[in-house]
Amino acid sequence: MTRRPATIIDAHNHVVGDHPDTLELLARHGVKVLNICFAEADGSWRTQMREPYARLSQRYPERYAWCTSFDLPTFEDGYVERVLEGLERDLEAGAVACKIWKNVGLEVRRPDGAMLLVDDALFDPIFAYLTCVEKPLLMHVAEPIACWRPVSEASPHQVYYRDNPEWHMHGRTDVPSHEALIASRDRVVARHPGLRVIGAHLGSLEHDVGAVAERLERYPNLAVDMSARLADLMTQDGDAVRAFFLRYRDRILFGTDVVMRTPHASLGAAERARQLAVLGRTYRDYFDYLETDRVVQHKGVVARGIALPDDVLEQVYRANARAWYGL
Description:
Elements: E1 8-15, H1 20-29, E2 31-36, H2 45-59, E3 64-67, H3 79-92, E4 98-100, H4 103-106, H5 124-132, E5 137-139, H6 158-163, H7 178-191, E6 197-199, H8 200-203, H9 209-218, E7 222-225, H10 230-234, H11 238-247, E8 252-253, E9 259-260, H12 269-291, E10 295-298, E11 301-304, H13 310-325
Parallel strand pairs: 1-2, 1-9, 2-3, 4-5, 5-6, 6-7, 7-8
Antiparallel strand pairs: 10-11
Helix pairs in contact: 1-12
């Protein structure tokens, strides 16, 4: 029988779970949540994410931690200095890491009109600072490869791109390719070997664990989280996925990426119960796939679980987040 660790770290989530019912659910599953900030163009991330996530971690440190971000480039004098000052304040306030999001590479443009990529020299002092203070960088670069393909009902991402067409790049000629974005991320990892980098969502190579493995072999300072990519794993050969977890047991972090940014205490009872049912069901799906060989259904994909050994579960569920994020 699988022995799940007493504490599981969900190393990639967005849940303002400030209600006793949420805390009870997390305690029942033994989960501590790392809430992740990401910077949007309007700057609202500080009030919508940074402030509530920091408050939660201060009030309930046994259940929450948080990862900050930094404002998108303005290409004005003093930008980098302002970012570094903000990072210093946030790290002093308890942030355990910093995130850079997919809008760098797919949305933000330089003054000359070219798309700004994550390996632009503008970011080097920021990455160097994180290296110096020994804080990791969470990188969500690119999107699933399905983003550049026609929407297909066979894809686990068809609902997302149907509902968020602004992030569907199929047929567009004004954005970089998936390959170009991954290459820009790889150059950052190579250029800053002392920086711990976590590639969100299996490093945006979720369609192919072999491609993820190639990067983990190439870059010892790189790890990945599996957040929001359970269905992608389930579409691949189960033996290959299990072998991937066994081989890179110290480089894969558990995460779910459930987005519930409205404080649960402000919701009505019915809506809060609905959201908590979604959160609980998500954890059960991930646990069943990782821990058992039962048939699992998740987001329309059906596959048999990979039944990882207890020592591997301990690393994926808890030890890797402690090692890579210092939790």
